[in-house]
UniProtKB/TrEMBL annotation:
Pfam families tied to this protein: ERG4_ERG24, LBR_tudor
CDD domains xrefs: Tudor_LBR
UniProt keyword terms in alphabetical order: Cholesterol biosynthesis, Cholesterol metabolism, Cytoplasm, DNA-binding, Endoplasmic reticulum, Lipid biosynthesis, Lipid metabolism, Membrane, Nucleus, Oxidoreductase, Phosphoprotein, Receptor, Steroid biosynthesis, Steroid metabolism, Sterol biosynthesis, Sterol metabolism, Transmembrane, Transmembrane helix
Species classification: Eukaryota, Metazoa, Chordata, Craniata, Vertebrata
Annotated ranges, domain Tudor: 4-62
Biased composition (Low complexity): 66-75
Family note: Belongs to the ERG4/ERG24 family.
Name of the protein in question: Delta(14)-sterol reductase LBR
Listed Basic residues bias regions: 76-97
Pathway(s) served: Steroid biosynthesis; cholesterol biosynthesis
Enzyme class, spelled out: oxidoreductase
Length: 614
């Protein structure tokens, strides 16, 4: 175990997070596990810093003494001139030393005044930015609800920003610029080191069981999908009643694959239409922001119109039900081919474009989790497109096909109440996701995970063919429920949706504009990253209230299928496991990102998803 370099109580110079400036701090403690020093600034701010971000005061004093001396060239030139003077004549430099000293001090005062002016101009004339770039510091008080005191986050290169403003609002003549630069080099109190370039490092902490786990998941996920679909076709879909394996030739049909490709590229065309607003995503590691066109809801409307035209011309939409397994195989084959293409192209991607969680250097792991963060063909973002369009909208189309298949197979004039509830609940969920499409830009899938087999298979196969399992089950296993039961299930779904939507809206509004007067009643814990951690409202109830609402809705989707078999409840069981695992991933990343602020937040909000349980 490496020994610590600085002792408790020692006064050192600590780098302020996100900047190149060092301030005087006092070491208060040291974490032997995380190898982080807890330091306290003069204003009471406490932060956790790495040893590389801390320097001794002696090194700064040494630099300051060097900078205050004349430059080597000036020293050498003065020596060369002094040899030509007579011994009795005093040196020119000594005769003018007093006047030069006064001028030097006046120049220093002028520079300090201009620096103050520059900082004031920065505050007054800097346009407001996205809330993800705001800086709140991390004071001793753990909660704040006065959003008017939020100041802008320091830039990575503040000296350049100050220099730009000084040139624009200068109080001195241009001939003094050279002298000013010399004074700045002498007057620097906070020493700037080399700018830090954020280049994604190798992924050290492997998730999903590492190389062995991801290798097994590549086979386990498709097997699970096919097993569930085969079970739904059984008259008795019990877990112990294993379905017979179909003939391999019956699982593939080129016509079905052609229909899937037509669907995929039709959604791609809809996403490229110049309708909807264009927004910027979160900053990448190199500071660049990608642009995204928000038109998912318009694509859904166009898709609904196209389906309506097909039904008007008496197209048999239950064709999806008759070839459901073949469609699943086609989607799986396409997602595998897409994953191979994504990995091959990621090998030529620049280092700063690689995913933080998929840059391990192991082929299987990077292939599964995704090696490149935002693979694009021109302006067409492959990951962002697949997240919401073909799979999510396809889920609604599949549900509609199951509804029509139920009516045809059972000779019904209208669909069953159970089928209506399942279609309605899940339609609301999809429409909500498309209406609030912009919110996905801050999720872990977009900001952290690369685009590999995990997301490609999940978006194109798992979502449309597993999430529609309840509707597929009801076609072969009709379930009758009474109106009071249907009303109770509807109330349960509405409660889940209310928690889900209000929690997400509260979070998104706070991220977008924490100074909004409507959010003045919300308390939050400021962090060194500029983001606040809400400790009131839904986010003061549990750490992930949106997950709680998601799980309640998932239960409401399964209840219309009755209690004869556990198969339709696979979704809610899987979803609980998924969200618990995702919560653990969030917990790990937030602890690394927010440090002490996250620990205080966990003390303030102890329950993760289920209040008083977990």
């Amino acid at each position: 175990m490496p020994s610590r370099k600085f002792a408790d109580g020692e006064v050192v110079m600590g780098r302020w997070p996100g900047s190149v400036l060092y301030y005087e701090v006092q070491v208060t403690s040291y974490d032997d596990v995380a190898h982080l020093y807890t330091v306290k600034y003069k204003d009471g701010t406490e932060l956790a810093l790495k040893e590389s971000d801390i320097r001794s005061q002696s090194s700064f004093k040494h630099r300051k003494s060097q900078s205050s001396s004349s430059s080597p060239s000036r020293r050498s030139s003065s020596r060369s001139r002094s040899r030509s003077r007579s011994p009795g004549r005093p040196a020119k430099g000594r005769r003018r030393s007093a006047s030069q000293s006064r001028e030097h001090k006046d120049d220093k005062k002028k520079i300090i005044q201009e620096t103050s002016l520059a900082l004031a101009v920065l505050v007054l004339f800097k346009p407001s930015e996205n809330n993800t770039k705001r800086y709140n510091g991390e004071p001793e008080s753990t909660e704040k609800n006065d959003t008017s005191c939020i100041i802008l986050e320091p830039k990575l290169k503040p000296d350049l920003e100050i220099k730009r403003v000084l040139e624009q609002y200068s109080l001195r003549s241009r001939k003094d610029d050279k002298k000013t630069e010399e004074i700045f080099s002498e007057k620097k109190t906070f020493v700037a080191v080399k700018p830090i370039e954020k280049v994604p490092s190798k992924t050290k902490e492997l998730e999903f069981g590492g190389r062995i786990g991801t290798f097994m998941l590549i086979f386990l996920l498709p097997v699970t999908v096919f097993y569930l679909l085969l079970m739904c076709k059984q008259d008795d879909p019990s877990l112990l009643n294993f379905p017979p394996l179909p003939a391999l030739e019956s699982l593939w049909e080129w016509r079905v694959f052609g229909v899937f490709l037509l669907w995929f590229f039709l959604q791609a065309v809809f996403s490229l239409l110049p309708i909807g607003k264009v927004v910027e995503g979160l900053p990448l590691s190199n500071g660049r922001k990608l642009q995204y066109r928000i038109n998912g809801f318009y694509a859904f409307i166009l898709t609904a119109a196209a389906i309506g035209v097909l039904l008007y011309f008496q197209f048999e939409l239950h064709y999806l039900y008759d070839h459901f397994m073949q469609f699943a195989v086609s989607a799986a084959a396409f997602s595998l081919a897409l994953s191979i293409y994504l990995y091959v192209r990621s090998l030529k991607a620049p280092e700063e474009e690689l995913a933080p969680g998929g840059n391990s250097g192991y082929f299987i792991y990077d292939f599964f989790t995704g090696h490149e963060l935002n693979p694009r063909i021109g302006s067409f973002d492959l990951k962002y497109f697949c997240e919401l369009r073909p799979g999510l909208i396809g889920w609604v189309v599949i549900n509609l096909a199951m509804l029509l298949a139920e009516m045809k197979i059972h000779n019904l004039s209208m669909p069953s109440l159970s089928m209506i509830l399942v279609n309605s609940f899940q339609l609301l969920y999809v429409v909500d996701a498309l209406w609030y499409e912009e919110a996905i830009l801050t999720t872990m899938d977009i900001t952290h995970d690369g685009f590999g087999f995990m997301l490609a298979f999940g978006d194109l196969v798992w979502v449309p063919f597993v999430y529609s399992l309840q509707a597929f089950y009801l076609v072969g296993h009709p379930t009758t429920i009474t109106w009071p039961v249907a009303a109770a299930i509807t109330v349960l779904n509405c409660i889940g949706y209310y928690i889900f939507r209000s929690a997400n809206s509260q979070k998104n509004n706070f991220r977008r504009n924490p100074a909004d007067p409507k959010l003045a009643n919300l308390k939050f814990i400021p962090t060194a990253t500029g983001k606040g951690l809400l400790v009131t409202g839904w986010w003061g109830f549990v750490r992930h209230p949106n997950y709680l609402g998601d799980i309640i809705m998932a239960l409401a989707w399964s209840l219309p299928c009755g209690f004869n078999h556990i198969l339709p409840y696979f979704y809610v069981i899987y979803f609980i496991c998924l969200l618990v695992h995702r919560e653990a991933r969030d917990e790990h990343h937030c602890k690394q990102k927010y440090g002490l602020a996250w620990e205080r937040y966990c003390q303030r909000v102890p329950y993760r998803i289920f209040p008083y349980i977990y």
